[in-house]
Amino acid sequence: MVISDGNDGREKPLLPSENGLLSRPLEWKLSQVFGECAAGEEVQEVDIISAIEFDKSGEHLATGDRGGRLVLFERTDGRDLRSRKELEKMETSMVLRHPEYRYKTEFQSHEPEFDYLKSLEIEEKINKIRWCESTNNALFLLSTNDKTIKLWKVSERKVKKVLEMNVDSSFHFSNGNTLGQFEAHGPVGSLSNGSTSDWIGSSTVGTFMPPSNGIPSLHLPVVVSSNEFTHVAKCRRIYTHAHDYHINSISNNSDGETFISSDDLRINLWNMEVSDQSFNIVDIKPANMEDLREVITSAEFHPTHCNILAYSSSKGTIRLVDMRQSALCDRHTKLFEEPEAPKSFFTEIIASISDLKFSRDGCYMVSRDYMTVKLWDLNMGSAPVATFKVHEYLRPKLCDLYEKDAIFDKFECSLSGDGSRVATGSYSNLFRVFGTQVGSEEATTLEASRTPNRRAGHPLQNSGRNLIGFGRRTGGKGSDVDMNGGYSFSSKLLHLAWHPSANLIACAASNSLYMYYA
Amino acid sequence: MDLTIIKLYDQEDEQKIMSVVDEPLYPIAILIDELKNDDIQLRLNSIRRLSTIARALGEERTRKELIPFLSENNDDDDEVLLAMAEELGGFILYVGGIDYAHVLLPPLETLCTVEETVVREKAVESLCKIGTQMRQNALVEWFIPLIKRLGAGEWFTARVSACGLFHIAYPSAPDHLRAELRAVYKQLCHDDMPMVRRSAASNLGKFAATVEPAYLKTEIMSFFIHLTKDVQDSVRILAVEGCAALGRLLEPQDCVANIVNVIIEFAQDKSWRVRYMVANQLYDLCEAVGPEPTREELVAAYVRLLRDNEAEVRTAAAGKVTNFCKIVSLPLAVHSILPCVKELASDSSQHVRSALASVIMGMAPILGKEATIEQLLPIFLALLKDEFPDVRLNIISKLDQVNQVIGIDLLSQSLLPAIVELAEDKHWRVRLAIIEYIPLLASQLGVAFFDEKLGALCMQWLGDQVFSIREAAANNLKRLAEEFGPEWARQHIVNQVLEKINNGHYLYRMTILNAISLLAPVMGADVTKEIMLPVVINAAKDRVPNIKFNVAKVLQSLIPVVDSDVVDKIIRPCLGELSEDPDVDVRYFAAQALQSCDQNMST
Questions:
Q1: Which among B9, B56, B233 has the least Cβ separation from residue A218?
Q2: pTM to 2 decimals?
């Protein structure tokens, strides 16, 4: 097993290595599980994970859920958390170590709201999370629901206690006037925000007397820090009232200063520091809504070129926009489109791109539509470089899927740090990993469960790029089985993320977070 | 010690206040304790009174206790940190004077690293304030190490702040430290983080101003050239901004050799945001560059910007057209810029036309009478017919500049329809804007033209549906009366206004009352008493209470205008009646007015 350092092959990730050897398919193993349901436990709707994102270094992972919460995880391996002895003992196994995470903190990012003007309920569900540059040991991230984007700062603070005050709180009450709620007061107070005490301000007290013997001398409050840490999440900015439709993506710019947010018809450009103003840069709303032919499904900034962004549409096209050309970017610089395919009632629906990602070097993009993952070379708009079929066995069932609305499910995709593989989700909590290098036949199917390779013998496993067959599942958990040829459309794996440098995939199956390494 | 200014809390209990005052340290103690209070308002209050706390503690304890305490206090709310950064900027006095100024650096250094930009900027500002007062050896001993620490900071926030401090310390630094400082700055210009490079770009001009000419030409220019080639648009934009400042520092020939070429390159940058910035800065740069030939080159660049593909760039360029014509020779302006102006007048973007309209009148004095009539007049006339109200308004607002050159007659034919159309625009803000310009127009067009064409409009606005328009209309009448004199006003305004008091709707009657109170001071005692006062007195019998209490208010405003016996004989009895009105508001305002009567009598 090799742990990629993220720089390996970054220059030309998609070319066969010089000696002609392809990296072998990875063997995936379970690393960690968070939030697994106990047997018989009912999954709460609010706990279902709706967004996953690693930060740039891979040191942190954030998940958002339908209840509007953000949960943060931090990497534990290779940190100074173990004793020296332990580290020494582990030294032999060091080489094999893969990233491991632990729960760091969680907080409520969004609350359900009601737009009274439009008489519209706004769900608290987190649609997207993006990490920003961290400073001063604090983490910054953007999170969005359908309408409102928030910038969060999560910092670690030592618990501080204010020890001495000039005016002891006990002096504030004349005898017999002590109210119940103040009774428990000692001179020592501690509060989580690290800068306050629980000493009750004199303004809140009805009758108080200064100490009869006066104040001998002035001194500053003595603050003592303990070794305990608390995590404080603070909302720094709220970017709101800029979207008429539901926000489907946010993406920050490499300039560290701006980010975009896109809804069905428009893309807005924001400055991180300015929350009351944004610029509309793409607007595809037709003068007459009856002429509406496509919607924006996802938008993403180029990882290094601050002026380039790409957005995908429900028609399966990707448009590249150069913000240098003009202030309004309604006209694209480059169009990425699959050559005309045979039409059927469903082709338009399944062509809709549900996710779009740049490779780390910015030379390639991957897009996910309902049936496939496509790899695009930024220099070639005429056709994708490669197309990976995710669950071709569903093709005869499209009618069924349409009736169940499952055909509108939005699966995400994620490239590995070196760009040599792409992962994406499917039904029955399955996800697939494809090799993107030329000539690679790698096409692994894994299940988000404690035994990811349980399906190794399954026909899906052997079918690579040219997979056509579909299979019938025979085993599995009872709850998974339904009437759809053994595949459960309700347990879908929509959200997953690949660690930026290591071969580690974090994926969400309902309310559980599974991590696999190779 | 000034302790009387301390805010006292919940002052219901007399005894409590007494005891607080008895104990001089008590308020200070509270103030100090509240530096750590839960309530941000109280913490903010304490921070704002830091100087009071410092005076109470004395200089030594301030240095040894308060300042270290504040240095620790860096995880508070932004508002508190911002206030702290500001207070510390003026704190030298409280720590024992210039000799101890350096003790203030540590807390400000911490504040230079927080993530909130405004706090960092304030901290840098305060550091600069302190640094300029520090002695040379103290700068070397304390300030320069601080710059180096920030410049090598782990987080970009520190490095961003560092960029803004170099110009303070550099002049005082000995040679070897100067070299070191330049090296640190170079590093910052090459930083990985665009935020840092942006800060280096925007502070380069300030730093360059302090650097010796020899290094300016070599090192600083190389930093500049490096920044101008940055891949991030946002960095290049700020590099452009610094162009003019750098240009001024250089000898003209160096400026031509280095800066002008860069600017010309920038003017063709791929990014419209960079070109936009060039369009905004080009005029300043031309000022900085002396000789004529370079101007020619820059004019060529400017002309390209006027014809840019991007409307934003054209808008920025169009807004500078008059300034530009001022600094280039007349033939060059007529030959190269004027054709562009003609194109811009029919630009597809209303914002471009609007920007052009706001400055184009200023070209008239530059071009002179003949060229204006021949070349500019058609453009003025075209813009006056623009479909976009802002364009027309912008032309009208600058009418005086043209009037001086060619007289108004040539324009008046087109002017009138434009004004009338704006006066009846369906957007009340447009109507409001044109009303604001009416006094200007009146003064330019003259009494005769005004009476004939605009007088009726001014009266019409008094009956507008929108209150703001009616209010502005009343005010407009007052300004016209001032412009043309009371005699004219008596003939052309007063009677027409007073007639409208019989309007069936009380809101319109109220407008008239308002107009009366505005006109009265201009018209003088006689006209007020003879003509206007009776109307007001009559209105006191209105059936609507709102009118009645407005009558009381108007009467109050008339008291200083008219003679005292008029007050006694006419105004006071009327107010007396109103003060017994069944409506409480009417009684209240009548009583107020009566009070003014009394005061007027006594003085």
A1: B56
A2: 0.78
